[in-house]
Design a protein that fits this description.
Strand content: 25-35%
Number of helices: 11
Protein name: ABC-2 type transport system ATP-binding protein
CATH topology of the largest domain: Rossmann fold
Strand order of the largest sheet: 6-7-8-3-9-10
InterPro entries: AAA+_ATPase (IPR003593), ABC_transporter-like_ATP-bd (IPR003439), ABC_transporter-like_CS (IPR017871), ABC_transporter_ATP-binding (IPR050763), P-loop_NTPase (IPR027417)
Keywords: ATP-binding, Nucleotide-binding, Transport
Distance between the termini: 35 Å
Largest sheet: 6 strands, mixed
Bound molecules: adenosine-5'-triphosphate
CATH superfamily of the largest domain: P-loop containing nucleotide triphosphate hydrolases
Helix content: 25-40%
CATH class of the largest domain: Alpha Beta
CATH architecture of the largest domain: 3-Layer(aba) Sandwich
Order of helices and strands: EEEHEEHEHHHEHEHEEHEHEEHEH
Shape: elongated
Structural class: alpha/beta
Number of domains: 2
GO molecular function: ATP binding; ATP hydrolysis activity
Domain ABC transporter: 4-229
Length: 298
């Protein structure tokens, strides 16, 4: 069953491109990664889902509720961490959690205590005394405290140290086990690999591909490193590379995605070959293939 359904969403900001024709669905209990370089359109897509902005075209539903007509009811079942967090600075963290709980008409004090302990957050502090990373923890706990059915995180881990990031990923896995559906936007590829089931890659406002994390990593790409006895022009290998990772006079390293037999037969014919290794590439390198020439500032 699809919990989040996005069809042909398009949004421009005046003359500037936001997103174009974005379509994807997220199933119940899935952790879905949303990956793209700066300015790709991740936050625009998420802000549309939250009805913070309105589309030029297309539609989106969460739990079969229209994101633009029924956002009030959607908010009751949703937890959201924005990419930038802003709070009433003079409030104590514990009071903010209490205030949020009242909005959901629930006593969430036990859950907020447990989560604060796990993420190492001192809830007796005033928000204006917190570092950027600790403010991010406040946002994460606030999103989780009312046990929502759907979680939307826009770059949630920026500012968190590695130990806390791992604890956060553990929390996400536990939520998934409870059947919670999670949309997780990030440009840190490594973290997506750790927790997500599937990933959509967005570039310049358009979805490039939607893949299972495992199939992305295992089935399609291999990393090939070849060293040569003498200086080599590498031409035949350059032609079969989907992306060259590194190249100098005596070595070449590249991402290969074609027929393995073509590669092996080229290697066999190469009298200049000194050594070769074929390994599984990092997800980072796989994504870089999609990212090529992708970075664009806001
Ligand atoms: N308020 C705005 N006014 C004008 N253009 C905007 C606005 N917000 C976003 N854009 C443009 O829309 C495009 C998508 O931006 P968006 O913030 O959605 O990207 P992103 O993938 O979330 O990037 P980042 O990882 O840097 O947060 C960019 O070209 C950006 O310049």
């Amino acid at each position: 069953m699809n919990v989040i359904d996005i069809k042909n969403l398009t949004k421009s900001y005046g003359k500037s491109r936001g997103i174009e024709d974005v379509t994807f669905s997220i199933e119940k209990g899935e952790i879905f990664g949303f990956i793209g370089p700066n300015g790709a359109g991740k936050s625009t897509t998420i802000r549309l889902l939250l009805s913070l902005i309105y589309p030029d075209n297309g539609h989106a539903t969460i739990e079969n509720m229209d994101c633009f007509k029924d956002s009030k009811n959607i908010k009751k079942i949703l937890g959201y961490v924005p990419s930038e967090v802003n709070y009433y600075d003079d409030m104590k963290v514990i009071d903010l959690f209490d205030y949020s709980s009242r909005f959901y008409k629930k006593d969430c004090s036990d859950r907020s205590l447990v989560l604060s302990k796990r993420l190492g957050l001192d809830i007796t502090k005033k928000i204006n005394a917190l570092s950027y990373g600790n403010k991010k923890k406040v946002a994460i706990i606030q999103a989780l405290l009312h046990c929502p059915k759907v979680l939307i995180f826009d770059e949630p881990t920026s500012g968190l140290d590695p130990l806390i990031q791992n604890e956060f990923f553990e929390i996400l896995k536990e939520e998934k086990k409870r059947g919670i559906t999670i949309l997780f936007s990030s440009h840190v590829l490594n973290e997506v690999q750790k927790v997500c089931d599937r990933v959509a890659i967005i570039k310049e406002g358009k979805i490039l591909t939607i893949e299972q994390i495992e199939s992305l990593r295992k089935n399609q790409f291999r990393q090939v490193e070849i060293s040569f006895k003498k200086t080599n022009t590498h031409t035949s290998y350059e032609n079969m590379a989907v992306k060259i990772l590194c190249e100098n006079e005596n070595t070449i390293s590249f991402l290969h995605a074609g027929n393995i037999h073509d590669l092996l037969s080229a290697l066999e014919k190469d009298n200049n070959l000194e050594n070769v290794s074929i390994t599984e590439p990092s997800l980072e390198d796989v994504f870089l293939h999609y990212y090529v020439e992708g970075s664009e500032d806001k």
